[in-house]
């Protein structure tokens, strides 16, 4: 299962850029004992890289029992992280310093969804 974005994924992500801010939906399923590893990743991310690249955690929480979902569609954690642009997110994941600790995220997870979202226009 895919855990981390690959080069082709990031290329498509940038090609489909509608412009403006992006909120990344993170759905996470932890490996046995993976929560501690993810916490190391999250600490480094929030202390260094989000501010450097203009990111902000909008929501982070534990998943509960789904009300509506197929079997296997439940998640251990959900995060919403806002970036000023898709380019800012891409710069962050390409940052050599970021690359030194992203292995904590990879080791922590057995499955993940990382989906860009854009706000609906109102009116």
Automatic annotation (TrEMBL):
Any Pfam family the entry gives: DUF1330
Source taxon at top rank: Bacteria
Domain (DUF1330): residue spans on this chain: 36-110
InterPro entries assigned: Dimeric_a/b-barrel, DUF1330
SUPFAM superfamilies xrefs: Dimeric alpha+beta barrel (SSF54909)
Gene3D superfamilies according to UniProt: 3.30.70.100
Protein name: Uncharacterized conserved protein, DUF1330 family
Organism: Geodermatophilus nigrescens
């Amino acid at each position: 299962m895919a855990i981390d974005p690959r080069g082709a994924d990031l290329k498509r992500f940038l090609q489909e850029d509608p412009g403006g801010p992006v909120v990344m939906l993170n759905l996470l399923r932890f490996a046995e004992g993976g929560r501690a590893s993810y916490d190391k990743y999250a600490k480094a991310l929030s202390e260094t890289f989000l501010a450097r690249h203009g990111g902000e955690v909008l929501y982070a929480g534990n998943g509960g029992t789904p009300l509506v979902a197929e079997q296997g569609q439940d998640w251990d954690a959900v995060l919403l992280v806002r970036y000023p642009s898709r380019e800012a997110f891409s710069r962050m994941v390409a940052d050599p310093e970021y690359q030194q600790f992203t292995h904590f995220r990879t080791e922590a997870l057995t499955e993940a969804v990382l989906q860009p979202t854009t706000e609906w226009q109102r009116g």
